[in-house]
Amino acid sequence: MQERARTAGKLFRIGLAAGRSTPGDRLRWWGLFCAAAAVAFVTLATAATVATYHGRETRADARGPVITFSKDATLLYREGIDSVGSRPVAIVFVHPLTPEAPLPAGVARWPDPGEVLLSPELVRTGRGEGILNRYGRFAGTITNDGLVTPSERIAYVRVADSPPKGDPRWMGVSAFGSGGGATGEMADQPSLASPVLALWALAGLPALALAVVAARVGSRTRDRRSSLLQALGGTWRHRMIVNIGEAAIPAALGTLTAFVPYAAASVRDTRLAPTGYILDHRDVWAEWPAALASAAVSLLVVLGIVVGTHRIARDGTSTRPASFTSRVPAWRLVACGVGVALVLTSQYVPRKAQLVVFTCGTVVMWAFLSSVVALLTRHLGSWLAANGKRRGHAGRMIGGRWTHAHPGVIVRLALAMVIGIGIVAQMQVWTSRLGVHSQAAVATHQRIKDTVIEVTASGMTAPETDRFRSSLPSGSILLNRTFYDPGASRDPWTTIGGSCRDLRKLHVACDGDARALTGSSAQLAKVEEMRRWYGDLRFTQVPRISVKPDGTQSLLVVTPAPGQLAAVKQAAFTLPNPSVQVEALGGNWLGSSRSRLPNWIQLFGVTGILFILVAGSMSAAAEFVRVRHALAPLSVLTGHRRVFRSVTSWHLTVPLLISTVVTGAVTAWHSVFFIALVQEGSVSWTILGYGITACAAVSLTVGSLGARAASREANQWRPTAD
Asked: Which residue range forms the structural domain that includes residue 459?
């Protein structure tokens, strides 16, 4: 046992020494450092996500109301919604029945009648829209104990007057802390699997790709060392110890570096741009034990990649390394096929599992697609070598032979482009998944801004409507909207009612005719937007406006200029016992959770693209080092330097261009299939074309820079006894 320990220690020290003296050791050292930091960063982000979900659910349960239908209720409770900008706001209306009325977490005391408690983020973002006075007099803020997240926008409003008896919207509450509260951000919270899958698909896969590329930088020397160890009788354990010793220090330092942002997020609330979401530092702090374990696992994964990418033949009959640079392992091709199969079969699994199966298949397919490309280019290399030999083209022959002998080089170079195009395409497709209504709301907002405002109320008498009209901004038009559905006999229609004077301001006839009069293009545009949202539209003269409580009617406020939505909300919420929802035309779709999805996709996708850029740069730099030394003697044999450009073109540029074409075709198919699966979204062929063009330009640049590096090395090359 002691002899084994001494042997292991010697081999580990050999690995440490090799890491400091191997050609290209600086590039690989920094590569492993960055790779370990990237993998640990994604792993720690996953731990923080799990902790955040647990903390959100705990705080939501602490403020969840215990609903009662008996006379034990000591508080009346009702929920409402609003928005600040395009972000939703949760409103909780309360009316304590006794001085001992229960309090939710985060609230020290109920405010006086007509006063309101606001969350800090709502105060910060809504101050410019008059949020401090919109629902009542500002009486203070809600503490973080009563917020799902510090970025939550929520208000507790104590109504000024007692709610009407028998109103079914008011619920009796006997206590708080029921569990399962779905107020505020919890109302549309996705499952934990959604952000974790997106994180690993868009950032985790590039981090693992970076680890593979970093592990194989300067691999020729390590492959020869492994063969020597095998020839001396060493086993796979001995080779593993040496490889781990060589990679341990940069990988460990990279993993420790990834703790810097995690430590910062555990002591201070952190806002995640561009989402606006604020991580609660208490959740991150509580997850430190799991974070340490996760980081240890990520370090083992990186070291496992280092060991797994430096394997040799196990039969003992040859000392020649059987590494990935000499052939494409069949299991990688099978893995790519499995990924494609998962994508294809995702449409046949249960609906809830379709997106999970599709995402898993996508990750596997993109991870191993470059191996399929390498197999194609390896066969291409054989053909190029034979063709160059027949035609006497030295550059084509040498480039073809190199491509055939070293497909792993193409894999590492193509990996960044393959995954990069895939990430960009997925970001675009997911961003386009706003749905028909959200896209229509965005278009409406671009055309008329917030000049048409819908006020949904459970019922308003004519005096209340008159009071509401008097509080509106000067020049506003108040209309009544009524929806009629006659059933199967006729198609439904919508009637817009108002005084003849108001209708004429809209340049609409007062005689019940749906036609619009000739007039201001701005006013006609507002009428046209109403038609887009309400369908068959008719206008009628109404002497006095009111709202029936049956849900078929609502109010429309048409303002003379944009930017007056906050003033309309102020007028609506100051009515007695406010029970209204005020939104610009289509505004409820602008504030939906799906409209914020692109921000999260952008956050994860940009992080993954940064990892891919590092992987691509490192792979190209390593290839320049290899090509520079290998090509330099050719200038002596050929007598000219055009051979450098020819060899690098056939060995690097042509295979990478083929990778770009194959990746573009697969990306187009994959994007179209995804849209067919979820039945929404669109493919931007322009963005895909830009991505393919950029990768083609990179392919040309890599070949050109490789030739230039070899040409410079030829000026200094001298024969050596190696």
From this structure: 437-588
